[in-house]
User: What shape does this take?
Amino acid sequence: MTYAKRCLAAMLLVITSVHTLYAGEISTFVGNIEEDFTYLATAPTRLDTEGALWTLGIVGATGILYWQDQNIRHWFRDHRTSTLDNLSPIVEKFGVFGFDLGLLALYGGTGYLIENEKMKETALLSLESFLVSGAITVGVKVGVGRSRPDIGEGSRSFKPFSIQGEHMSFPSGHASDAFSIAAVFADMHDSPVVGITAYGIASLVGLQRLYADRHWASDVLVGAALGTVVGKSVVYLHKEKKDSAYVVPIVDPSDGRFGLMLVKRF
Assistant: This one.
């Protein structure tokens, strides 16, 4: 058996084992994603003063960048170097769907092997945030249909409901992916080093999209904001559930008696 075939067989064995051993966790995970969408969809009804100010700030900043998108694009094009050209593909990987999934699988798998609950929780919540943010981003991309800068149609060219990649610039998927993971890592760890590192890498991904001429600056800002909001919301909901108490009905089939049981999460 070749090395590639052995790797494939091992992967299939791991996937099958994980599905069997953690079927309950998978079911909970899917339920969490549904709750995340519901929470985010109803977020405007819970908007307080601070939230409203942040929202207005992001909208205002997006408007300013939209107005300056062409000038910002020209600045990046005028400041290309051979060193940055070599670094650009490396940085881009941290916003690529498959690469991010691989990193989360490695991080979470390590957590399971060494029985580190913090690592396992962080990996699962990051995956949850990553998938929710990605789904929202794709929906907005298709609905808005903004043209990418490198196809030469300008920053104000829109073709709504286009499924062509050239017209799916807004918002940046790389930025939303990177920030959706960064927000979870930052909020799950008390160390400022983790937060600075996570957001620093995500910010580099956003800058790379401008350098590579694949996105406008306003695309990157909205993608970063979307990913951050989703990531923080996922962690918030997770912590709320851990501290929650709920009632579960119980039935004894032997004599037909029933009752209620109070379950407390710590």
The chain has one domain: 46-264.
